[in-house]
Every structure is written in C-alpha cells, then in structure tokens.
Specification:
By secondary structure, the protein is an alpha+beta fold. It has 9 helices and 7 strands; from the N terminus they run ααβββββββααααααα. Strand 2 and strand 3 form a beta hairpin.
Length: 238
C-alpha cells in the first residue's frame, strides 16, 4: 500500500504543468531544494527551564528530590536548569556547565555525580549515610544512637541523611561534648527518634549543662512546713 502511494505521488509530481513549463518536481529541484538546510544532528526536544537554582555545598543541584553534580567551582552559585524528557542540563548564563541523564520516574534521593565535577585529590569525599554514622561515632554513643534511629525510621537511608546531618552539624555551633549530653537527654524522653528540633532547644537552654531537664524528671518536693495534727482540730476532749 505504502509503495503504491509513493509511486502515485512520484508520478503526480513529475506530471507537467498545464499552463506553464516544468512540473512540481522540477520546481522543487531547481528552486526549493538549493535553499534547504541539513537537519540538526541532535533531534529537537521540548524542554522546561528552571531558573535560580543554588548549587549546594556538596556540589549538587536538586531536581525532583534527586541530586545532580555541578563543577565544584560553582558551589554556592545560582544556575539555571534545562530539563527534557531524558536529560538535565545546567547553565550559568549562556554557558552550559554540565549535563546528566535524568533519574528514572519515581526514583528519589539518587545522586548523579560526574567525577570530573569533583575537586582533585582525596580530600573531597561526598557525604553519605556511612560517613554520617562514622561522624556520629566520633561524637559519642548517644549521638550514634540518634543517627541510627533516624536511618531506621526511613525506607531508604538516603532519605534520612538530611535529618542526620542536621543533628551532626550542631557540633559546628556547640562542642561535641555538649551535643552528646543533649543527645542523652533527648533519648531519655518519650521521643523514639529525636531530631534536630529536639536537641537544639536543650542546647539553647543549657539543660545539657545542668543535667536532666525539668520535663524529664519530677521536680524536687517543696518542704512541707509545720503540719498540725488531728488532735489540734478535735479540741481538748480529754
């Protein structure tokens, strides 16, 4: 069927005009064909642009809860993302910095990292759940317990990485000793998996330095004072 259509179309285009010289085929080859340009090497794709995305301290930008690396020189910089059905491209102005294949639909907390985007040398290591656990172990047993419980509370370890790092980064503001003490107080509470929101108030109010907070143990009993006995109220009945 298709071959027959092609044959009829070719015959129709080659048929001479009735009121002028030539045919549709001769007009195409003589006038139109020389003006044609080659098709682009890359097929056209509909794209979506996202502007002003900040490159995080770990050298990645976030798109749909996945992480894509950017050359480390751009950490802290605002960049633009061009998204197609298959690809994510990162631009700074009109300069393309890098590109990645998109993570599959439904996948979250996945890291797409090009080695060429990372600094040279062993000093740079991407933070991951294992490194977070090692960091917690250097702080102390209570902090390790909290970090482990955070990871246990999520289906995939990477989903708990942000919450774990929020706890660990408290050591940038407070000493490791204080964070460890606050972790112990938080673990004594009824919260199964303490987070940053539980530890920070303990540290801000210095309860880790006073010991257990007032909501973790009953307050000391006030002195009872002098208590009159029943005989006093009964009067002198003797």
């Amino acid at each position: 069927m298709r071959a027959a259509v092609y044959e009829r179309v070719a015959a129709y285009n080659a048929k001479p005009f009735q009121k002028r010289a030539g045919s549709r085929l001769s007009v195409f080859e003589g006038e139109e064909k020389p003006l044609l340009r080659p098709l682009p090497q890359v097929p056209f794709e509909i794209s979506q642009w996202l502007y002003g995305r900040k490159v995080q301290k770990n050298g990645h930008v976030v798109f749909e809860r996945n992480f894509y690396s950017v050359p480390y020189e751009n950490i802290g910089r605002s960049v633009d993302l061009r998204i197609t059905d298959t690809t994510l491209e990162v631009f700074a102005g009109d300069q393309r910095l890098t590109s990645h294949l998109l993570a599959p639909a439904g996948v979250v907390n996945e890291y797409r990292t090009h080695d060429s985007d990372l600094p040279d040398g062993p000093r740079y290591q991407q933070m991951d759940p294992q490194r977070a656990r090692e960091w917690a172990a250097r702080i102390g047993e209570n902090t390790t317990t909290i970090v482990n419980r955070i990871f246990e509370s999520v289906p995939v370890d990477e989903q708990g990485l942000g919450a774990a790092l929020a706890v660990l980064r408290l050591t940038r503001r407070y000493s490791a000793t204080r964070v460890e003490a606050a972790a112990g107080i938080a673990l004594d509470s009824r919260v199964r998996s303490p987070r940053y929101a539980h530890l920070r108030p303990i540290l801000d109010s210095n309860q880790d330095q006073r010991g257990r907070g007032p909501w973790f143990e009953p307050a000391d009993e006030e002195p009872a004072g002098y208590v009159r006995g029943a005989d006093y109220y009964a009067g002198d009945t003797r």
